[in-house]
TrEMBL record:
It comes from Streptomyces monashensis. It holds the Pfam family Acetyltransf_1. The keyword Transferase applies. The keyword Repressor does not apply. One of its GO terms (molecular function) is N-acetyltransferase activity. Residues 93-251 form the N-acetyltransferase domain. This is MarR family transcriptional regulator. PROSITE patterns: GNAT. Keywords: Transferase. InterPro entries: Acyl_CoA_acyltransferase, GNAT_dom, NAT_camello-type, WH-like_DNA-bd_sf, WH_DNA-bd_sf.
């Protein structure tokens, strides 16, 4: 297998790990793939031959075997451990303002990626769509911004900074880095851009809400000085989760 194939297997195993059996079309939807992209049929055949997945007697649905679940967990643990700190070689990363179509891309990729990696349902897509629509329809360009990260000339990440209800407070939202782009420090660049912008325009505090299953993101926030301020269990996006509020004192962190 090529390096690209290995990464593709990683993505497929991760998606199957969050699905209670699915067909190829459903798997393609979870991965956010166009027909033919990723050579999904070939990858599934290889995964099945390796004993990591099996089809039902009708041959229409595929699910991980016990070995496949173990491999998915091991790959996820490795990916999480490496996070945004493992360089994969030289690459040109650029942050830019959104262009026409980028806000829609943010909605689509958030929905597809969180379905594939965590099994979240369409409720999450609805939430992201409302957040993005609110920004598109009414935002102050001096106090609110969106950044799109590009790697090799294509979008691979995003983040948003918007005004919070509390006076003097900004909110970081919708941080995302595509799996194949992780390892280039893109998450650090995106969070750093929000912190610098929020401090530069005069916000006192920067807050965010996340969930405890997002281990790599939480480590990233902590690395930038955010402090966990509250936790609350909740049922959202078809899953039982623990929501977390994080806060960064911009005046103190900038001293």
């Amino acid at each position: 297998m090529t390096v690209q194939d290995i990464r593709a297997v990683d993505r497929v195993l991760s998606a199957l790990a969050h699905a209670d059996g699915t067909d190829e079309a459903g798997l393609r939807a979870r991965l956010g793939l166009a027909d033919g992209h990723l050579a999904l049929t070939r990858i599934l055949d290889a995964v099945e031959r390796a004993g990591l997945a099996e089809r039902d007697p009708s041959g229409t649905r595929v699910a991980l075997t016990a070995s496949g679940r173990g491999a998915a967990e091991a790959l996820n643990a490795l990916r999480t451990a490496l996070g945004d700190t493992a360089p994969r070689g030289p690459a040109e990363v650029a942050l830019r303002e959104p262009r026409p179509g980028d806000l829609g891309w943010m909605v689509q990729r958030n929905a597809a990626l969180y379905a594939a990696e965590y099994g979240w349902n369409a409720d999450y897509e609805g939430l992201v769509a409302r957040i993005v629509a609110d920004f598109a329809e009414d935002h102050d360009p001096h106090l609110e911004r969106v950044w799109i990260a590009e790697l090799g000339g294509r979008p691979v990440g995003c983040v948003m900074c918007v005004r919070d209800d509390a006076p003097g407070t900004a909110r970081l939202r919708l941080l995302l880095v595509e799996p194949e782009a992780r390892g280039h420090g893109i998450g650090d660049l995106l969070v750093g851009a929000v912190v610098d912008f929020a401090r530069g325009v005069g916000y006192r505090d920067l807050v965010l809400w996340t969930n405890d299953v997002l281990d790599a993101a939480r480590r990233l926030y902590r690395r930038h000085g955010f402090v966990l301020t509250a936790e609350q269990p909740h049922r959202s996006f078809g899953k039982d989760l623990t929501g977390q509020d994080w806060r960064l004192d911009l005046h103190r962190s900038g001293e």
